[in-house]
Amino acid sequence: MMLNPERFYALPAAARGVCWLLFTLILGGLAWWVVLRPLSQQKQAGEAQMTLLQQRLITRKRALRLLTPPDALIEQQVPSRAFSPLDFQVDDARFVSWQPAIKGGTLVLDSSWQPVPDIFALLAQQDMTVTAFTLEPVAGRLHFTLQLEPNDGR
């Protein structure tokens, strides 16, 4: 069946406008059904998945909070002191020199045997790691050379 465009042009202007409006609405509805509706459904599915993930994260966060120590235990930990080579000027040990490097430095002390363990303990309190050291006897004393680096484990 052939459509005759002369019939359409013979209609009054108002009828042609209504036909054009209906055609446009039907075409718009079809475009919505084919293109926009699936996108809307995908968006809703994504939002539902996001809500589910947020709920899982909240439960994991709550479980993690139960594993963290209370604030009282954190406050009881002794904070480390800042490193200063002058702290090693004690009775049985004498500070000789400090050569800073890009990361750490070299500390040289003259001491007897007794303060050597205490020097390591003091370095641990100041968050310094001994990468190398030497003990050389010089005139009845020890020439103690330490290679130090800050402890990055904190």
What would the keywords be for this entry?
DNA utilization protein HofO C-terminal domain-containing protein; rod-shaped; alpha+beta; transmembrane helix; 4-stranded antiparallel β-sheet; single chain; 154 residues; 2 domains
Task: Outline the fold blueprint.
Elements: H1 5-10, H2 13-67, H3 71-76, E1 93-100, E2 105-111, H4 116-125, E3 128-138, E4 141-150
Antiparallel strand pairs: 1-2, 2-4, 3-4
Walk me through what this model shows.
This protein is α+β, with helices and mostly antiparallel strands and 154 residues long. The protein folds into two domains: 12-66; 85-150. The protein has four helices and four strands. Strand 3 and strand 4 form a beta hairpin. The longest helix is centred in the N-terminal third of the chain and has 55 residues, at 13-67. It is rod-shaped, with a radius of gyration of 41 Å. 6% of the residues are buried. InterPro entries: HofO_C. Keywords: Membrane, Transmembrane, Transmembrane helix. The chain crosses the membrane at residues 13-35. Residues 83-152 form the DNA utilization protein HofO C-terminal domain.
Q: What is the approximate shape? A: rod-shaped
End-to-end distance, in Å? 85 Å
**Backbone CA Rg:** 41 Å
Which regions are unreliable across 5 or more consecutive residues at pLDDT < 50?
none
Helix content: 40-55%
Beta-strand residue fraction: 15-25%
Number of helices: 4
Lateral strand order in the biggest sheet? 1-2-4-3
SSE pattern: HHHEEHEE
Supply the helix-strand structural class: alpha+beta
The domain tally reads 2
Average predicted local confidence, pLDDT = 85
What's the story with the biggest beta sheet?
4 strands, antiparallel
**Total strands:** 4
